[in-house]
Each structure stands twice: as C-alpha cells, then as structure tokens.
Amino acid sequence: MFRALVALCVSLAAVAPGRAADKPNVIVIVGDDMGYADVGFHGCKDIPTPHLDALAKAGTRFTNGYVSGPYCSPTRAGLLTGRYQTRFGHEFNPANGPNVGLPLTETTLADRLKAAGYATGWVGKWHLGTGERHPLKRGFDSAFGFLGGAHSYFAEKGKGGTVLRGTDDAKETEYLTDAFGREAVAFVEKNKAKPFFLYLAFNAVHTPMHATDERLKKFADIKDNTRRTYAAMMWAMDEAVGKLQAKLKAEKLDRDTLIVFVSDNGGPTMPGTTTNGSVNAPLRGSKRTTLEGGIRVPFVLSWPARVPAGKVFDAPVIQLDVLPTALAAAGVESKPEWKLDGTDLLPFVTGAAKGAPHEALYWRFGAQFAVRKGDWKLVKYDAAAEGGKGTAPVRLYNLADDIGEKTDLSAKEPAKVKELQAAWDDWNKGNVAPLWGGGKNKE
Ligand code: CA
Questions:
Q1: Which of 72, 90, 210, 358 is catalytic?
Q2: Is the Cα dihedral 101, 279, 268, 359 positive or negative?
Q3: Which of 50, 283, 311, 386 has its CA 20 to 30 A from that of 262?
Q4: Which residue intervals of 317-433 are DSSP H helices?
Q5: How confident is the prediction for the chain on average, in pLDDT?
Q6: Ligand 1 centroid vs 230 CA: distance in angstroms?
Q7: What is the pLDDT of residue 430?
Q8: Cα(274) to centroid of ligand 1, in Å?
Q9: What sign results for the dihedral spanned by CA atoms 93, 96, 100, 101?
Q10: Pairing relation of β-strands 196-201 and 119-125?
C-alpha cells in the first residue's frame, strides 16, 4: 500500500502543474568551430564522441546540415531568430561595445518560448552583445556564461571577460566546459516541473587551446599537439552533453525533450583563422569561407517522442530551421509577419511531408556568397582557402558527386550559373547593409 502511494506520488510529481504533455522541453546545444569530420557519427576515428553519437542515434542526423554563415556571431544570430542574419545587418562578428550585437528589432527563440510559458535559460557563450543585448534582456530568465566571442577555459588565465551568473561575476573556478555542463544540469534540476528551453552554447572547441591534464593524457597517442588538445576539449564537451543526457533520463524527461545539436560554423583550418586542429574532410574550405568546410556542420535533431531514431536525412537543412521547429513542437504558430526564413523540419523528418524543406539556401558574407539549389552550388569564396588573396571567381559545383568542391562546372553549365545567380540576386534584395564592418572579422 505504502509503495503504491509512493508510486502514485512519483507519477503525480512527474506531471507537475504547468507541464502540459504537448509542450516538450527544448534544448539547443551549440558547438564552436568544430570540424565536420570530428564526430563519431561522421566517422571520426581519433576522437570518440559517445554522447553526441548517442544523441544522433536517438534522433535524426542531417548530412547536409548548414549554418547561415561561416562565423560565430552571425550564425548564432540566425539560430536565435530563425532569420538570415543579413536580413537585419548582423553579417559579421560585432566588435566589443555597448551598442552592437543582435539588433533590438529582432525577437529571439527565448522571447517566443517564454511567451508560450517556458522557463528559459542560457548557459555558455553569447557573442550577441552586452547591455540591452544581454541574454536577460533577450528572453532568458536565467543566464550563466560569458558575453564575448572567446574565453579561456581556466580561471587563472582569465582572458575573455568575466564569466557571469546573471549580471554578476560568477567567480567561476572550474574548467569552463565542465562548468557549463554543471550549470546545464542545474538548470534542468531547477526547472524540471515545467516546460523549459535551455540554450547551451559551448565555446568548445574554439581557441584558446586549453585542456585539462587528465583529458590530455587520454589522447597521448595523438602526436600533433594542437590536435591532441582539440581532442581533449571535444571530449570535455561530449562529457558535458552526457551529463545533461543522464540528468534528463534520471528525471524521465528524455522522451519529451527536443534536442538540437549543431556547430556554429566549420573548423578553422586555413591561414588567417585561429586554427584549432579541426578537420573538415571530405569538405573543402574553412571557417571564414562560404565553401562547404565553412558552413556545413554536424547537425542532429532528437525528440524520442516524435522524431525517428537513427534516421539519416540528406536534403539540405539550416540552423534557421531550429526556431520554427522548436516553436511547432511547443504548439506555437509561426506568424507570416515574423518573416522567418527557417522551416519546421518535423513534418519532413517524420515523413508527413515529402520532398526537401527548402527550394534553395543562401549565404552572404561580405564579398563572399553562395547559393545551393538541389545538388548545385554557386559560390564565391575567400581565396585564402587555396592560398590566394581576395575573393576567388564565381564557381559552380555539383555536390552530389563532388562534395569536396573540386571541379568547377561554371564554363560547362552557363545556364545553371545564370539560374543560381538570379536566385541569389533575388534573395539578396531582402537583405540590408551590414550594421558594422567585417574588415577585421574579429573572432
Ligand atoms: Ca564559431
């Protein structure tokens, strides 16, 4: 009798007031500057990522998962708004300053989910501004992390500004990735009785290259120093994801939690970027380029209650889709006046909708641009990717049989070049001038 009562209480507690069964939790996890090749589910051999692999296995992974830019801040702006960041001038990384960052005209996923009754929390790297642009002013109820674009992982090295809890110095002493994992778990513990949205934006595996001795020892067989440190940093992030997964499971929330994992841009592998030992193969190019290596990233959507497990989805998707997907999951109707560029992916991954979520995807990053339509890609990219200067000429690739963008087909297929250029020109009419310069492209 007593046991039955306990069981009844436990089951009542599991459906606490405020938690509607049709409102899943939403967790968006972002990795920073990861190489396309550097996860187990893309075949990585020297760095195990068991928890990210488990996430991919529990959900659907996207082989053609993109971000809308090749740099940190712009893609995070696109992610949180569901709009191409070039629509509102957030084309480049903002410099540090009081009045730059995600424009106040824009509404974030946190704003929208908060309005739908979610508890909202940010943990990690922000890189979308300070002051009026602080996470607490952009829809988040709680905040833990740093506001800039890069940060040391050890407190004693102290670079990258203060790690904040809310607006106060958190006086953090733990290795930063471990601290973010700890805070993510604490957020779930605090908010487990109601629907929650957690934006867990790691700065791993962005420079500076800092790893704990214990994790470095695990990768002693990797001879290259930078790659070894990168592996240890990736392992730390994977462990943090594992702790979050374990917490969700322990609270029996795993089935009803939608999780997205995405890297904010590709690995920085070319001269002129702060390289971190990442590998983008078989893709060509690097962070800072509109080649595939800069914009195609590891991308997973998991929601055991609704999204098929172990599925591989090949049609192109983009991080702009995260907002409409999360809102649809939460039962929030996206309005035309929000001018979203993203698409709800749920009907596509469940098979309710056929075909591709997008007719075409577009990029603009200063003089660089790209458009992908079907298997075709027209691209103008940073010539540093091939040891040159300035911007390379416009090139056409067919990604179906040339994922490494090696064979330029622009001379052979002039009609296709014209078609894609016209599509891009048309899309570009909906963009505005950058609100700040990209001259330095500060990382
Ligand atoms: Ca980045």
A1: 72
A2: negative
A3: 386
A4: 322-329, 346-350, 414-428
A5: 94
A6: 14
A7: 98
A8: 11
A9: positive
A10: parallel
Q: Assess whether 313 and 394 both reside in one domain.
A: no
Q: Is 42 an active-site residue?
A: no
The C-alpha atoms of residue 147 and residue 162 are separated, in whole angstroms, by: 8
Phi then psi for residue 235, to 5 deg, are: -60, -40
- What type of residue sits at position 39? V
Same domain membership, residue 308 and residue 415: no
Look at residues 286, 295, 303, 309 and name the one whose alpha carbon lies nearest to residue 382. Answer: 286
Distance CA 92, CA 101 (A): 10
How far does the centroid of ligand 1 lie from the alpha carbon of residue 53, in Å?
Answer: 21
Per DSSP, the three-state class of 290 is coil
Residue 21 pLDDT: 56
How far apart (Å, rounded) are the C-alpha atoms in residues 356 and 441?
Answer: 33
Question: Is 127 part of the annotated catalytic residue set?
Answer: yes
Helix, strand, or coil (residue 312): strand
Span from the CA of 61 to the centroid of ligand 1 (angstroms): 20
**Residues, the chain:** 443
Residue 405: which CATH number? 3.30.1120.10
Give yes or no for a contact between 85 and 112, defined as CB atoms under 8 angstroms apart: no
With respect to residue 439, please indicate whether it lies within any of the assigned structural domains. Answer: no
50 and 69 share a domain?
Answer: yes
**Active-site pick, 42, 51, 90, 127:** 127
In this structure, is the dihedral angle defined by the CA atoms of residues 420, 425, 430 and 435, taken in order, positive or negative?
positive
Tokens for 373?
């339509």
Ion ligand 1: residue ranges with CB closer than 5 A: 32-33, 72, 264-265
pLDDT score of 99: 84
Checking if the pLDDT of 160 tops 90, the result is no
Q: pTM for the full model? A: 0.94
For residue 124, which of 154, 93, 95, 150 has the smallest C-alpha distance?
150
Q: Assess whether 59 and 194 both reside in one domain.
A: yes
Domain with 189 in it: 23-350
